[in-house]
Amino acid sequence: MASVRLVAADHVAGVVHVIEPSTGRPLARLEGRHLAEHAGFLHLAGGRLAFVDDLAGELVVLDPFAAGTADPPVVATAPVAVPAEHLAADPSGRYVAVTSGCGRSWEPWSDLLTVVDLGRPVRPRSVRVRTRIGEPGVTLLAGPDPLVVLRHRMPGSLDVYRLHELLAAPPACPAAEPLLRLPLPDDGHGDAVDPATGQVFAATGTGVHRARLRGSDLRPEEPLPWDTPHRSGGRGYYLRLDAAHRTLWSTVRGGPAEPDRWPQWTNDAWWHRLDEGTTGRVPLGPGLVFRLAFGADRVVFTRVHPDGDELIVVGADRPAVLARVPLPPMDGAPRRGGTPWDGVQRRAIAASPAAPLVAVTRGGHGQIHLIDAQACTDLRTLDLPTPFDEGGHMAMVAVGDHSAKDTVGR
Where are the beta strands (DSSP E) in 90-184? Predict the structure, then answer.
């Protein structure tokens, strides 16, 4: 198995752990680092990870393979506007963009976008500009004239900016006007980009809207529907690119709209082959299913339900459920009649395309379950010194995997 590192953030306690998952050995513990959970971890080239410390207002670049050696695991930091909502990089990992969201406010209030150049020889250049109040998604498009694309809601749009014009902005957070604006539905939630083709994807209630880079222009294309010949209804709120299999994935949620009826929500794994143009859905079961992770020829999900939680393993080459692995219950798990995200425990999931391991947190218990996704068997449970309330957040990094080709934070 390739050399692997598991990075696990207890964002409530303010600790980031670096672990060797094959042995469970802790390699480093970063105290006072409060990961912005919604923005998550961003894989960068060279096995690095980036995340936003929401309390410090910093972008943190981490080398997990330096942990446990004489070299410091934190290789760079840069100031960014917070609360961080989304972050994304260009394929080289040199440029990073961070959008700001609601934080503890119920309404959007910030219009700040931060762009960072990590390639500067002395220290990263970090520039903040004003765009539009909201909580936008973000993607970057490479090329001779790199672009930053913001996905806005209400009114929905894709707003396109020239990266180098943003980096050249003066101090004091000036307003930045988009180069062009493409209309979108108002309910966008979920972003992905294919660096190989210059396509940008945005998940909305009506489907996955697409646009493609043509020179310095971004042109809309026909949206991809959520419905397939055998499954219909619902929508996805999350998009990920499986670069190794050239496939987009999402989780399509259907059923009653009321949050307190979440045990009746339906969930399908939705997939679309980028090169072949084929699309399908795989039923996962009722309850709460959201984020997913890519293992070695596997796509893995967690499903939370009052009747029992489970890890679901789906084949990447031929999408179908290969296994369902029961997970120990969580004290403080979502209950019938309540919402699945307010004051309850959750689960985070992590995997690497270069390793058979899957890691799943048990929120509130300070535990991470390691599972062999190929054999579909439990390997061990790691007990951590902090509780991982709200489930925490994780990333798994392996030498030579394709994770950095998904250039959006997860």
Answer: 95-100, 112-117, 125-130, 137-141, 147-152, 157-162, 180-183
